[in-house]
Design a protein that fits this description.
CATH class: Mainly Alpha
CATH architecture: Orthogonal Bundle
Number of helices: 5
Order of helices and strands: HHHHH
Structural class: mainly alpha
Low-confidence stretches: none
Strand content: under 5%
Helix content: 55-70%
Shape: elongated
Mean pLDDT: 88
């Protein structure tokens, strides 16, 4: 399979951008997701986040962060 498409998603950056958009902080998100603040901060500065945590974040921020991945999947299927 040819890799002529972009598959790099920095989901941590996307979450941080959404937090900023909503005027929320990592401390607030940590409280809402029942996560340790320093651990959550570390996770949000990584390109990938565990699915279980990403689901919690998606629910709290009312944003389907999984759609970032499904959009790429759809685009790659269109190329074939």
């Amino acid at each position: 399979m040819s890799q002529d498409f972009e598959t790099n998603i920095n989901i941590g950056l996307a979450v941080r951008q959404k937090l900023k958009e909503q005027g929320a902080t990592i401390a607030w998100l940590a409280e809402k997701t029942y996560c340790d603040r320093s651990n959550l901060r570390k996770q949000l500065y990584k390109e990938h986040i565990y699915p279980e945590l990403l689901l919690k974040i998606s629910i709290v921020l009312r944003t389907n962060f999984f759609s970032y991945y499904s959009d790429i999947f759809s685009k790659t299927n269109e190329m074939n």
